[in-house]
């Protein structure tokens, strides 16, 4: 389910985002804003870098949008640097209008949406449900730095050399980015790699979306 992003934003009521992601971000929004403004007041020449993996990547996307709008509206001297956003294995956050608005909003700074090989999370929620990614994908075919592809994607056009062009999915590719594992070692976990299975329905929906997108 999607909800209106923020009617007070420059995108207005045409931007919609995943309700769960937005609810999670709102739970920390005002504390985050206060902390960032305090830090920028103390260090006015510093820039703000927002980053996150998986759900954290979705929240980082919403945070980058919110903070850039906040800084754009403020009367800061000197003018703050544009927000920098690095997301890793992030799902789609909102609709086409939101994705395009955010791509434009962050265009004066650095924005990389980093994906890895057969990571299934970057293909969710589905495009046929009305979701879209921001532009700026950086795709790694493997854990090797030399496998990097700077994708020529836009909000409405996929680059089939990158994650959209990979049919198979494997959960472990979501758990490893930049040669590091993002899994936590628990009491009953030896930290070894394993793949949790996706629901069969999700596999089928991924197949449908892949084949329809290639036409």
Automatic annotation (TrEMBL):
Highest taxon in the source lineage: Eukaryota
Region (Disordered): 184-215
Domain Fungal lipase-type: 12-127
Biological process according to GO: lipid metabolic process
Pfam families assigned to the protein according to its UniProt record, in alphabetical order: Lipase_3
Protein name: Lipase-like protein
Organism, scientific name: Leptomonas seymouri
